[in-house]
Design brief:
The chain is of the alpha/beta class. The protein has one domain. A hairpin with a 2-residue loop joins strand 15 and strand 16. The structure holds calcium ion (CA) (3 copies). One calcium ion binds next to helix 5.
Length: 282
């Protein structure tokens, strides 16, 4: 599937203009052998489980589900490519509050993915190019909410994950999940297990999210400690169901109040769903 290149076929979706917004990938049986390439504009999908996703430019946005890592929003693909360098990506995959699984078969792209996440993280604002999250950006911009969220990532086998966000994982898969900052083991809870991982690696470099590096710089230091400290005791007990609960006044993870950016996405999706139906070839 090629999108946002005028005059090019995009398979069952017919032709769309450059920069158009396309809602799709809502089917229940994605065909892994296919692929998606975005050249420019904004592509909105319920997920992008359609073979290798290549972003030459523009932004591919997964629709926010307002539930962390809702299975319906999980993108599982064999590979992800984003043009540009890791320090200056030329395209963006915005996962919102959804999971990404790179179900690779040869070489893991874990470190490449970390670099793309670091670019998307943008020092905490979560509005960079690369791999970003408008849900995390919304929380980051909310000065009244100290409980920042993030996209955690890990080699599935490192954490012994065999299931995540509705998908069964093999031994060669990289998982990205939307969770609270400091959730080193991607179980939704910020507790002593996370703290111990950080403590073990404190002062070290060359470390990963699952080792206590929560700002993607490889170093485990006070910045990472603070990510745990501010969220300690919070949890997301039901990853398919609900907001964070915790003692006191813990706010919801990604409070379900669409701000303009999110609302615009929803509006665009609504407007183009009809477009997609008209143009789809049976
Ligand atoms: Ca695999
Ligand atoms: Ca945890
Ligand atoms: Ca760090």
């Amino acid at each position: 599937m090629v999108v946002s290149r005028p005059g090019k076929s995009i398979g069952n979706w017919g032709l769309i203009a450059a920069g158009a917004v396309l809602a799709g990938f809502a089917g229940t049986s994605p065909v892994r052998a296919q692929s998606t390439t975005l050249y420019t504009g904004t592509l909105v999908g319920q997920n992008f489980s359609n073979g290798t996703l290549t972003i030459e430019g523009g932004t591919a946005i997964v629709i926010p589900n307002l539930k962390p890592d809702d299975p319906v929003g999980t993108t599982i693909i064999p590979d992800l490519q984003i043009a540009g360098t890791t320090s200056n990506p030329q395209g963006t995959l915005d996962l919102s509050d959804n999971a990404l699984i790179l179900d690779y078969s040869d070489a893991s792209r874990l470190l490449w993915l970390r670099a793309e996440l670091r670019a998307g993280f943008a020092g905490g604002a979560w509005n960079g190019t690369g791999v970003s999250s408008l849900a995390a950006a919304r929380v980051a911009a909310d000065v009244t909410n100290l409980h920042k969220t993030a996209l955690g990532f890990t080699e599935a086998s490192t954490l012994g994950l065999t299931q995540y966000a509705g998908q069964t994982l093999d031994s060669t898969a990289v998982v990205v999940g939307y969770t609270l900052g400091g959730d080193s083991n991607l179980d939704g809870a910020i507790d002593s297990q996370d703290f111990n991982r950080l403590a073990t690696n404190f002062g070290s470099s060359g470390k990963l999210w699952n080792e206590g590096d929560f700002n993607y710089d490889g170093v485990v230091n006070s910045a990472d400690f603070n990510a745990i400290a501010t969220n300690f005791g919070l949890s997301t007990p039901n990853y398919t169901g609900g907001p964070i609960v915790g003692a006191g006044t813990a706010p919801a993870l990604g409070a379900p109040v669409p701000e303009p950016a999110t609302a615009a996405v929803f509006g665009a999706v609504t407007a183009t769903l009809a477009f997609g139906r008209r143009r789809r070839i049976a």
